[in-house]
Fold each of these.
Amino acid sequence: MSVSDPVENALDCFDAGDILRAEKISFEGLFRNLQPVEIEIGCGKGKFLISRAEQCPGINFLGIDRVAKWMKAGQRKKGRLNLQNVRFFRTDIRLVLEKTPLQSIHIFHLYFPDPWPKRRHRPRRLVTAKFLQLLHSRLLDGGLIEMATDDADYFSQMKAEAEALSFLWREKRESRERFLDTAKTSYEIKYESAGRKLYYLELKAAISRNGGIGERASGGVEERASGRAKEREIL
Ligand SMILES: C[S@@+](CC[C@H](N)C(=O)[O-])C[C@H]1O[C@@H](n2cnc3c(N)ncnc32)[C@H](O)[C@@H]1O
């Protein structure tokens, strides 16, 4: 076993079983039911995810974070509350997305991703057009990407990257207040109590019947590519 193997790293911490070894994740196998699935990217201690899972027992929640020590708190709380609809994986979200079936997810939650404020570090930011396109390809029609940041520059980048792919979205909404009536994340609470300005962006996916591209873009031949071809293109 290689310590640097991302699958091994994901498996040795939490209850991933053989899930990440398969070519595609079976959410039915993971949760043992066919409920809708929401994924939180960079879930940290899982405060938001655990609250939402308590609030919505008819939805399954997958929390992903690269760092295990934060998620252990969430994993313990999940055990105390005996929540059946939550799983945590320690791994890079990009590995999970690669193995997530096309058009299978109801909501991606991405709150306070590392802002990398120094100019030379900005290429490390997670939210790029390519990343949004990857999330879009895994969303169901009308599925949502919920994002938040306290970094005004990163917020401008999020909006610009989404705008560059405007044909993928049915709706784009921005706000200074959260859209979902669910418990806040740890960073959200910390930043709010410090009086920082917070920025929220919501993208609603448009998926055509013939693949993973927005209805409004259905004029081009390339844009009519099948879901499978589209998947190859963006991975
Ligand atoms: C600033 S923290 C925010 C945590 C939480 N969302 C909150 O609002 O309290 C960003 C989190 O994203 C995680 N992270 C960063 N890049 C990631 C990636 N590529 N895959 C999975 N997790 C990632 C970090 O380990 C960290 O826990």
Amino acid sequence: MAMAERFGARWLPFRFVLAVALLVLVTDRAVMMRAGATPIGINYGQIADNLPSPARVSWLLRSMQVSKVKLYDADPYVLGAFLDTGVEFVVGIGNENVSAMVDPAAARAWIQRHVQPFLPATRITCITVGNEVFKGNDTELKANLLPAMQSVYQALAALGLQGRVNVTTAHSLDIMGSSFPPSAGAFRADVVPYMQPILSFLSMARSPFLINCYPYFAYKADPGNVPLEYVLFQPNAGVTDTNTRLNYDNMLYAQVDSVYAAIQALGHADIDVKISETGWPSRGDPDEAGATPEYAGTYTGNLLRRIEMKQGTPLRPSVPIDVYVFALFNENLKPGPASERNYGLFYPDGTPVYNVGLRGYLPPMDYSRGTRKAVPLLALILIAVAAITLSLS
Ligand SMILES: *[C@@H]1O[C@H](CO)[C@@H](O)[C@H](O)[C@H]1NC(C)=O
Ligand SMILES: *[C@@H]1O[C@H](CO)[C@@H](O)[C@H](O)[C@H]1NC(C)=O
Ligand SMILES: *[C@@H]1O[C@H](CO)[C@@H](O)[C@H](O)[C@H]1NC(C)=O
């Protein structure tokens, strides 16, 4: 009995360290094998003071098979944590910096500093110039948006990066003057003068049109009349567009097709529409109907299934929806109603806010800078430590 105990105590550290080493190796292989399996995109917002380091987040995202990440800036610590991972990045120029980018030299300097150093090891494939610019009342910003996009585009070309990085901007759905039925979709009258030349630019540059869509806002505004099944992708009879006879079983697709119609009405049939943000909050203020973990889980889970099915909208059935879920983490410093701080799939400690079948692994510490090369080395070190532990005991 006493001998067995001593024997156990002697072997325990060795077995523990060996198990950790094997786990590190196995996890890394599993992440590699699944990378790129499902084209899930996610918004990695950082308006918070309690988020894990980018190196740990790199592990989390890869363990979830996330293949596309969208940032609101071009955080070098994030981009550096994804070298050689194959994960595709959308980086952003914040609204506060858009006007400065009208100057070609500033645009060029921005790319040289924030994009070029990471290519091609980190796959930056798109730059968003501004976010939801037409939601605000800043007329100078609205007027500067297209010239800034043009400067960024020309700077990419001058640096030999044309065709490798798209240039666009992300809009909120309130650019729409009408969105129902989808075939009657039209931009707001005050937006059209800005939008017409932006569409010409996107068409020329072969860049996508990005739209942030939140069926949750429609539900929150009128919970008594907006059917929950229709906004949560649950079985329902749907709504038929009387002009096209197309049936919509969910609001998100109706919103996207209304944007296609609005673009078409301004003469363009050659621009892809992508969903740069969509999501559902898991918590809200008392007057924010529907902000619960149950509904958030239903919305996100059903959305992920449709992404996996590579489904298109009724108007473009053969073009799989291209979606960036909002958002990776709850962000505790976001202003506004409580829902704004509760869109995350994860709490900052890596615990899922609700279960949608996305398995994620947030490593407990920064044991590598997110580069896979360090992993076998770490495993070796752990095995060496195990051997030393064994020989000393
Ligand atoms: C972007 O704007 C912020 C805030 O005004 C400023 O501190 C920063 O230097 C700007 N960055 C660039 C690249 O212009
Ligand atoms: C913009 O201006 C209009 C009219 O002046 C006002 O109703 C609206 O609330 C303003 N929007 C913002 C975001 O400030
Ligand atoms: C740029 O956007 C177009 C249109 O959506 C797309 O076909 C192309 O693959 C994108 N380019 C890159 C480098 O991602």
